[in-house]
Q: What sequence folds into this?
């Protein structure tokens, strides 16, 4: 039971978020380059270790609030299945292991991993209690992952990739806040005080703005002259339908099915959404590596 409690506390399902470190590998046309692929995999594992350490810290800090949440109360720490001392030690070991592995990649990647760990700690202790900045902090975490992936294999990250990543992560973060607000209803502020600063109409407006911006930014990226020159083709526009469908499907699940609390579980658990992500990756890879 103790081992299972530890594994659950590491939130392995959320490691899918660390897949953003592979973005630079895909768009730099180095996915088939073995040394670069190995470095990217090491970067991914390092971030999994660092993020799991952060999740444990978050659970330690939020243990009282989590016990009042219908879903989070089942987390090992909140449920009393894992004691605080053990969780603290494991968090420290994971962080040290993650940073040690980051060191083996290269110095710049280590700095990115340290920046992410610092942001995660700051978010847990303070930023998640500051309206709007809490959402921006979540988005910044995804951006650091993308930049770190580029630093790991020593390639420049395009401005388009950073902008699209930032907008998409804001979209996911706002959807998560909306789900918390709707699910917890009158108990929302008791669980997470910052939720009293939001309302469903406000978040719907913010999501609408970010959704439009994400789609426009991605479309402009696919048709830009710089993109065509980099990949030697304008066929990346073929990926636009999958992005459109994926975002609209996600909005449907948020508004009609009451989902969105856990983006990674939603993507994995919804077959149409998972299919759109897979087809986007397959089409993008085919376009990028066909020449």
A:
């Amino acid at each position: 039971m103790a081992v299972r409690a530890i594994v659950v506390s590491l939130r392995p399902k959320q490691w899918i978020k660390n897949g953003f470190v592979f973005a630079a590998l895909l768009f730099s046309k180095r996915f088939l380059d073995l040394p670069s692929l190995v470095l990217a995999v090491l970067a991914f594992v390092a971030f999994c270790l660092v993020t799991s350490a952060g999740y444990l810290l978050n659970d330690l800090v939020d243990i009282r609030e989590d016990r009042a949440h219908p879903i989070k109360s089942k987390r090992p720490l909140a449920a009393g299945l894992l004691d605080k001392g053990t969780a603290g030690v494991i968090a420290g070991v994971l962080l040290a292991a993650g940073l040690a592995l980051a060191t083996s990649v290269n110095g710049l990647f280590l700095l990115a991993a340290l920046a992410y760990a610092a942001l995660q700690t700051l978010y847990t202790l303070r930023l998640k209690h500051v309206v709007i900045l809490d959402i921006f902090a979540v988005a910044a975490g995804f951006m650091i992952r993308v930049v770190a992936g580029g630093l790991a294999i020593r390639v420049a990250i395009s401005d388009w990739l950073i902008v699209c990543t930032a907008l998409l992560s804001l979209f996911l973060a706002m959807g998560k806040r909306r789900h918390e607000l709707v699910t917890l209803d009158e108990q929302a502020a008791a669980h997470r005080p910052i939720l009293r600063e939001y309302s469903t109409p406000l978040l719907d407006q913010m999501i609408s703005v970010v959704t439009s911006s994400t789609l426009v930014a991605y479309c402009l990226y696919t048709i830009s002259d710089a993109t065509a020159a980099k990949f030697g083709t304008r066929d990346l526009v073929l990926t636009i339908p999958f992005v459109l469908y994926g975002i609209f499907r996600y909005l449907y699940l948020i508004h009609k099915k009451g989902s969105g609390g856990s983006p990674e579980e939603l993507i994995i658990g919804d077959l149409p959404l998972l299919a759109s992500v897979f087809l986007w990756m397959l089409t993008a890879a085919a376009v990028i590596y066909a020449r």
In short: The longest helix spans residues 34-61.
